[in-house]
Records
---
Amino acid sequence: MRNGRKFYYLLYIALIFALFSSWKVTALNAAELKPLDKFEVIPSSNVAGEPNVEYKFILKLPEGTTLKKGSKVKFYFPVGIVPTNAIPAGKITVDGVATTVESKGNGVSYIEVTVPVALTSGRDVEVVFTGGSDGAGLTNPTYGAKTFTFISSNLAKTTANYSFVGQPINSLAMGVSSEQAGEINVEYKWSFKTSEYGKLAEEQFIYIYAPKGVFTQEIIPAGKIMVNGVPTKKDSTVSRGLTVRIPSPVNIEGNQQVEVVFLGGEDGAHLRNPGFGMKRFLLWTQMNEKETVYYTFTGVPVQEASVVSVSKEAGENNVGYTFSFATSAYGALSAGDMISLYAPPGVFPDAIPAGKVLVNGVTVAQDLTVSNYTVLKIPTPVNIGNSEKIEITFLPEAGLRNPSMGEKKFLIWTDMDTRGTAVATFDGKTVQSALVSSSSNIAGETNVAYTFEFTTSDKGFLRKGDWIYVYAPSGVLPNQQIAPGKITVNGVPTTFATKGNGLTYVIIFSPVSVGNNERVQIVFQGGEDGAGLKNPDVGVKKFIVWTSFDGKAALNQEFVATTPDVPPANPVEETVPPSDQPDVIDDPVNNLPPGEGQNDSSDKEKDKEKDKEKDKEKDKEKDKEKDKEKDKEKDKEKDKEKDKEKDKEKDKEKDKEKDKEKEKDKEKDKDKDKNKGK
């Protein structure tokens, strides 16, 4: 018994040794195999899906190797190229010699070719799969980078890469059953036409990209999407919440119209509309490259918007703020969606550290950056439902600062709801001891230097980048933007200034910090290379200066005609701009939220009223000009009448002179007659 066990034990050891030796020899042989020195693939067309394409492979055998006549080699292709049937003899050539036997493969990924001629190393050899309707029958694969492989028993595997391009799809369009931002269970419909070579087999893929939040599931079950009226037979998967891959339930030909419908309703695909505004969608297939379509969704404003500051004193720093509002009936937000706030210039610091802002009592865990000095976007740390109250709390450490005195406008909107307006009133002071002077007070003179001076209030300090405003009468500021460096603040050139409100005021981004109760001097350079300011017409004119934190102060400057001893006929006093101008400026640096989808009817009505007032003022000016022209015409007529009267007077004088001459002549004639009588 023991001897039997010993025999089997020794037999087992011998088998293990034999297998190991065989594996070792095979491994050593494989290690000795060399790949081709050259392997290139050159199709006659690079367009995805094109049929009957010629494929040329260039091979170079490594030194010391050969391929004998009758050797079998395999060419591995990307899926979709290889015909399902064997390739007849003569449809492939090797080094110019046609094959004499058919070339077979698995009908999916490879073709085995019998070499019709011996091949040696050290030179390029061409293997050509003929193209055309009577060729080898190869069809280009889907677009993108693809790998080809050459395998021979006496050579190591060698690969080559080639990239194919897809034709674009045609006539892409989309529609939805509702355009309301945030609405759920909406039916979506895409239509397009495949390209000439855009043929798709059943279960090949159609892809659609949509904005974040449109696809609410990772898997859309079979039957919830229709392709040309046929429900999908397999599930469609959603990648990263943005791109759905749809296995077509039908064959689709080239140049065929296709309609893809995501069913709506409670038992549909559960698609949700994105936020308000114009949104981008993409559609493509395995054969056709991406095409873009845009669609605009409408929103409604956030509800019950309000803002509260712990302090009402203008310019107060490190103040706690609370913004509150309610989402609309479709305004639900997922964690990570954005809540946006607009505040007057200077309220928000450049950045707010993590942990200093709370949304419904939950801390925002990341740093926040303010864009364009006035807009802050906050990713909500919590999910928020439809018609739900939201409270955003800024701790004093967030660094918010109250704006200048007066009624100020704040705006609130989200990814789903358009902007709502909140108003707060602040008490404070104006800039102090304001002065204006110019290098010339001659009306209409160009390239004049202007100097404005004022003192900040006890809460009016300015940080570098805070805003200083200067209002000037119409026509003083140039039509174009003022170039950097042409304005100085306390002797330091500005890097940026912009104009707003019909070119009547300029906003200066202070290049220096200014303390409380500190004097500020603003100089607009004169001369040909200066800021380009021009004096207004004759009369006493009003200028205004203010900052982000100190209110407006009006300044007077008188301008005279070139000959000052002749007083102007009708001196006109410049009208002071309205006291609330301008808290929300005319978007000088895109600082207001995007206009798309925003519904602020009160603002629109105010704008209409302002436009009407402007139109009335323009009409009044036109009437004045007409009256002036009429007066001029009347004056001309009067002058003509006067000239006629003068001419008449002259004629009378001439007639009198003539009569006198006649009387003299008569007297002379009488004297002559008397002399004759004598």
---
Amino acid sequence: MLLGSPNYQQSQPQPELKLPPPRNPDIRPMLKQSADTPGASIMVVGYAAHGREQAGKSLEVVHAAMRKNTLKAGSTVILHVSGQADTAQHLKALAGLQLELQKSDINVVIAEAPKSYADAVRQGGLSGLGARWKRPEIDSLEQASLHQGMALGRAVFSDEEEIGALTTSRQGLEKLHSLDAGDLMNSLKDIVGAQAMKEKVRVLTDSNHALQHAASRVGVPKNHRLDQQQNDVMFKMKSKGPAGGPAASFRKYEAAVLEKMEAALGTIKAKSITSRADVRDKAVDYFLRNARNAAGPKIEGKTQGILCHDSVWDRDKGVKVKNIVYVSVQSNQDLIAAHIKKQMSKGEDTPPYYKETMFVFCGPEAVPGVDAVSLAQAADADGIADAGDVSNDSAAYLSEKGGSRAQLIKLEADGGNVPTITPEKFEEQLEEYIKFQFEKSVEKYESGNTTKDLHFRMGRTDTIVAAHDSLFPNSSKGSEKTGSVMYDQREKDYLAWKANRKFLEMMSRILKQFKEAEMQDGEIQDQPIEIKMSGKKEGTSLILKEWAKLTSSQEDTLKFLVGETEYGKNNGEKDKIQFLRMAHEFLHIAAKNDGVPADLKDDKAALKERNYKDFKTKKFIALRELEETIFEAYENDWKHQEAQNPAIGA
């Protein structure tokens, strides 16, 4: 048919008119509020999930900013992401970060970053350029996806709600609209103004030069911008000795090992925990919830996942895992797996060193989205690995520098000068190793063994910490210990110091009455708990549900602690109460009293015996963590007072 034919237009399918999404009326006022709120920030994060070396580090820097409280409630994080739909692991990581930000009362704006020409060619060649090189669809942040921060009282989720929220987040991440880096930064400047761009905006990228250049053009100063590629280079350069060789305190692989350990501890929410036994219990719980069952079919020709006795999988039977052993081998993996399965199939006759040991068979699909070896090593697991396995360097470093007491058995490859042994002899040696390490596990996890050496190393050499401190330079001053923000600000902000001291006093008294009632087998949920604060003539009597409601608001808590008059003089300091979220979550959980009745009964018995490490239910685990935090805060306060002028704050 000729182009001039009158029927030509009718024969062609009409293109569908695709309108850009409308502007969200909440985004502009939300960003302006972040710009105007004292202490809040606007953090623009460029994140590429398609294979670059720095992928994932940017998200860890954001986690570090939340953990150090440099990214405060009322802030906004703008995620400019690309390649997130290419891999489930990165999609899960993004969804998890988004939800954690929201639960910390931090707003999240998300848009897709257009892939560069080089990205498109690298992934699909010139033939795939048209399909893979997605062009911008929106031209302003006001058309991006918005997830507003949650007020403190709405941030406590049940397991089912958490799964539902994460699923919704992942689905939303798969449907993002593309926004050019220049349009992103221009529209941000249009909303918050030039002064806020200079003072309030931080830009972090994993190698996104377009976003860095756009930020520079709109006035974000150099010291408020960081590219992970450049940061890695600079960090390693600064870690060199005067003659150019590696400094004694820094080895090339150290940063990589510690980054893996921090990521693993963050995954199981154990970064602030120092007890080796508690880290083990957190890891066991995470493995049981998320790992593949290695008793099932092989995955990609390998045994991957965890092997546990049936009594461990069945929580009602209450069998506690006392040791973890990871297996990272190639040639002997089937033999090891078959031996362990055979021992565990003996039912009640299974030896305790199999029944109470968790075996982690490592591989890319063992624990979706997580490096199984790193998570096992962070939990001080003993190892069985090939002699040349890459994980052996990590194990050696953790043993030498990280305070680990775990043991590693290395399997030499057959051939050469390596003597060959029969499968029967191999199983005999394997049996001895598993039994011996199980018997030594008490010494490994108890006996005063802590993760303090590991935490010291992470804080000193971690490139993630270096990146965070470059963006928030004032955060590295002083101690990172619990409560340091509260005490370092004491002279400048007496109200904050006074309110926090009273808050610690209030929570200590609530916990005391709570524990007394639980140990007497009383039903504490509907019993009034009366608190008489020092300096007040009358006490306040509320049930747990009402205490939880009170602590859901910074404003209400401050008014209760210091009084209406003093609060009115200092109502600009509403974000100064430390531990408030942790306390609220404990009170909320305690008021609901959810849990398996048998587990609650066991936890009450453990409370009476002061065996806090044996707690199983959310309520009692939250009690333990809150009590440890309060104890450390009191300890830090006493140390601080000894070092200060006694007249301060009198």
---
Amino acid sequence: MDRLPCTYLLIFYCLTFVCIYGRGQDSFPSCEVQVMVQRGMIKKAAPQQRLTVRCPVKHCGESLNVTWCKLLETNTCEQINQTEDVEITQDDKHAADRLVSSLTFKRISLHDDGLYRCDLGDTQIGHFINVSVSDGELDLSWLPYFYICISAVLLVATFSVFTLLRFYGWRHSSPSCDVGVMVRRGTTKKAAAQQCLTVECPVKHCGELVNVTWCKLLETNQWEQINQTEDVEITQGDKSVDRLTSFLTFKRISIHDDGLYRCNLFTGDIQTGYVSHIINITVSAEVPGDAGKGDVSWLSYFSISISVLFLVITVSVLTALSFYGWKLRPSQPSPEDQQETVTVDEVSDHAGCGGVTEQNRVCRPVEACQNIFTLYRDDDDDGAGKQFCRSSFSFRSHLKDYSAEEGRRRWKSAL
């Protein structure tokens, strides 16, 4: 009876161990050895280039031997061995359960062109790798990307050009061209008899075939067409693509040519015509010698300009004289200077008033002699009242007294 519970307990432990061990094995997926070369792989190169073909392999920790072979025309795969130009290497540093076998052509040739594959014995065979060797043929795999970039650039450039035309180009688009005569209203031409006079008639034809004629208004209020003669010449010249000018030239104009003129423009259908404004030609009966005087309408503007210039110069000169010229003008003595009282004590070398040398004698000026000499009177105690002239220029430096007669004589000689 005691062995039965022990037996049941042992069976329970065994079943538990089997369940746990089985679940543990199922929790880790199984590792399968295989060759992981992608289907349809292509390698391109030119002769004498270096080319490397790689074969990734999943070894799952097993020791494997990777071989390379080339498919022959007999549909058999010939094994490739390492030579001077062909090198076979393996590298297992990328992952723990993987390695990469490399087939390197050091200087590939046209004979190396063909299908290659890597094998793991007879158990695992990889997909074929197409090695294409072309003589001078370039790899054009980048061409689609180039087309995409060029298309994007063209799209951006086209959009930019249309944007610029929208904001700038269309604003400056030329307006519609209108045919017409461009003679200014009120045009007047003046000339003297026997002179040469040319009248212009600018015309806008806009590329159409036009005919320009000239005519003169008669006293009967009718327009008479002018034809070319010995004294009258009609010519025309093109100024631009859509414009021309017709010239009516009087070689020797006369009094009879005085009057009103106009030019007429007719297009190709003749029925459409354009008439200019009237041109007034005035011919004066001056002799040829006086004809050279010409038009003096500019004389009024010239006179105004000269007057303004003269006024500016006058104001400038007066201003300069007020600041510089008048400062140099000698000043007139004031009445106080003429009434100045000078004592004998103020002058060191004064010989006295009229020869008197006593102190505190006063010499009073009587009259001024043109700012050169001053007439003084010596009021002595005896009242003699002698008069003398003193030099004003030597008043503070060297004073010298003269009698009235001597002072006047010296003053007149100084003049």
---
Amino acid sequence: EETKPQSAPNAPIGVQTPQTPASIKHAAFSVEDALTLQRQNTEAPAGRATISKNRNSRLPEKKPEETPEPIMVVSEFMKIRIQKNELGKDEVSEIWTEGNITVNQFNEEQDQPRHITGNQLHIQNNGSNDQILHVIGNPAKINAQGSQIEGEHIYLYRLANRAEVQGKGLLLLPVRGGQKAAGGLLSGAEGISNENSLASPLATDSDSQDNLLEIHWDQEMIFDGLTANFFGKVRTNLGDNRLRCQEMEVVLSDRVSFTEKNPSEQKPDVHFITCRDGVEVESNEYLDNRLIGIRRASFWQMNVDQQTGNAEARGPGWLVLWRRENPEKNDSQTKVSQANLPQKTESDSWNYTRIDFNGKMAGNVSQRSTTFDDRVQITYGGVKRPLDTIDRDKLPPGAGSMRSNSLKLIQHDIEGQKKKSISMLAKGNAEVEGNTLIKSKQTPTSQEFSASADTISFDESKDQYMLRSFGNRKATLRRFSHSGQNPQRVVSQQIDFSPSHDQVTLHGVTELQGLP
């Protein structure tokens, strides 16, 4: 069973009387193979010790091409424990260092060596690649091939290929994938919010580029090269996406080795990510440096599979989307009729959607669909600016709200346009209410309405609701006039309703009230 090594503050060096700064010379220690003890004693320069790394080895010396890369340790103070191995040769078994320490492992096939910096270092050497390093700093850092680990206490177990950080820290890791991958990774809602990147050539180019995965935490990190676990106020950034939670697990597509030479072109994909406890998501989308979409979300737990595109979240939770109505133009004119949206001005060009749910959210990036379960409520309409909201209890003209046991949202292409339209399907005790502008009249007037049915579907491109009930149950539609007249009530097996055109089509009529 592995145990953490005794840290440098408790090592014998810590009880020594410090030397005066004027007499300090940097001590350098190098671990190299295939060097004889005679050469170590006669050729090593002052202040430098060069000692064989292969402890407890009964095997012949390795061929030059198999020789492990040398490790150089430099610090202001250094204490080295040397003991004889089974062959009677001197072997470094333990190192304590203090003061501006640096460690480099050189690799001829890479531009830069593995690099470690900190204030204190403790190394336990058990031979070959079996070393345990404890680096202390403010912060201590380990750099290798573009990746970086930072923390006050870093433990590196080379044989087990595991790194641990106690306390707050930072991981920087180059990964493959662009904006589309980042959006799917952090939101799981790209199917209903990312209107352009799936169809834009820019999205294809950016998706082939490399990104730098940045993860911060406050308590602990454990990383075995393939799976990384983070604890305590975890924060991550990837492109324009930000994610916060209390616990996070990230699984890579390829293992990163702390001992072997990783190919310089090797950059793993983020294969799977799980976040738990207080998950918060923020994501922005741009087209030609112009903001066209904003996502905000909060869940209890979130799982995203980058290879399949599947994303799942556990509630209670909510998801808020702001979509620029016409992302390709500066004005807000559009050829597509928007349901329950007011007549737009130049400043009134954003669509707002908020979804609250208590069960599960499941979606797929490639299929561009998302399903919500258990006491679902969606509020939608037009707003003047991004981050503006709609009060579901005081719906303004052009806004609506729907409640049901489950809700499915699907994004559809519009022929000849990059703009997308959305359809909704609410099932189980479905209810909808809204405040719409009737465009078919000479003078547009607002009209409030409410409806209930077993299922309610809505097609944004046609501005049409379909209310359906089954068996002996009936769908009901009520329309309210601001003139104070009694509400108009319709009861039928199926009702097709276009609010902005004030058109109603009935199938299996049971009751009509208040209609002219």
